[in-house]
Write the structure tokens for this entry.
Amino acid sequence: MIKIIKGFRDILPTDILLWQEVENIARKLFASFGFCEIRVPIMEKTELFARSIGADTDIVEKEMYTFADRKGEMLTLRPEATAGVVRAFIEHNLSHQDSVQKLFTMGPMFRRERPQKGRFRQFSQINAEFFGVAAPFADILVIELLHRLFDELKVTQVTARINSLGCPACRPAYKQALLEHLSGKMENLCENCCRRSATNPLRVLDCKSPSCIEAAKDAPAMREHLCDECSSHYRQVLDGLARQGVPFEQDDKLVRGLDYYTKTTFEFQTTMLGAQNAVAGGGRYDGLVAALGGPETPAVGFAVGQDRLIELLSAVKNPPPKGPDIFLACLGEKAALLGFDWMSSLCRQGIWAEMDYSSKSLKSQMKRADKSNARFVLMVGENEIKEGRALLRRMTASRDDTTGQEEITLDGNLVDTLIKKVAESSPAGGKG
Ligand code: HAM
């Protein structure tokens, strides 16, 4: 038997409800914040990711699924969505329509990391990207949006951590200060950090190796080295978040694993998922659009790791399994033929109807209806067809409610009668 690729996963029907719920809530919330959906390919030219995420990041150095296609073109399964959205923003001149663009996208990403709890090689992200506003309002809005998403989903076990990485004007001096701090500790750094420290010493702050954590312990903070503009921007973001009631903690060591960030960076972290503590991350990337050949465009955004979010949600709630609105328990060939017609007619009209496709006993069909969490069962056999009447039994999820049954006329109005019964029994009083 051919098995699934290591680090990839199937989302089975038993688990899909939470996924759909998260996506529905996110879509609704994004719409109310004025974000429009964009869908970009899951594969792009390798160069797009190398140039945006940064050549000396873990993602580009060792985690991308990259291959030469049949014509030798180097392609990569997207490890993140921002680069593709920025490419599309530039390629379709979106800023010509409106210099301010709020976009969101959802879908699978691919990173060849070591699989573990909360870490997969194919995983899903929900991204929001806000283009065209340099003012701290944009940072505040996207962080608030992310906070509201967790709030709507009733996820309370996350903490927003915030930092500023400065800009091309102030970061070089900070890098220098950091290098000086690390200079006496080079032999303690892990191999990766040792190699990268000359070009990008900030990576050491992000490294999980105990010796690098120790080396970075008393490192200078970027906050102390921000230029006036970055410092004021950072202060306004923090004040704005406080005004909007978004709780946060400052984290001087938060540098993120992608190189395109400027000024504000943030992560929503949890202690519930072991080593994989980041449920969402993002920040400002004012230089990326221009670096990829577009007009100078400030931007800020985030991505939520949907797999991790679902894992958090599963810990707090399990929605009751949904079942069919009506199960048609049909005994005999004639009843089965009629039952099939009623079933498809109901389905066409938006009512989830099921039947037992085998000719099992009534008892075993009832068992199946019960197991499937059906709300009603219509029991039809040869006698019922002859007499033109059948029993409709109301099943209940909890089984404590009164389980009523009533006689229904098997005439030309049967499907309409059943639709009415379902509507009357649904909590909202509408269609099932
Ligand atoms: P990121 O921090 O690399 O940022 O990823 C965002 C989220 O994706 C993480 O917080 C985590 O929840 C989830 N994630 C990442 N890798 C994995 C994995 N191997 N398995 C499961 N979940 C994972 C970005 O991707 C940026 N593009 C975010 C952004 C958008 N910045 C600005 N706009």
Summary: The pocket of histidyl-adenosine monophosphate is lined by residues 80-82, 111, 113, 119-120, 123, 125, 127, 129, 257-258, 278-283, 285, 301-303, 305, 307-308 (CB under 6 Å). The CA atoms of residues 272 and 312 lie 7 Å apart. The domain at 326-421 is CATH 3.40.50.800 (Rossmann fold).
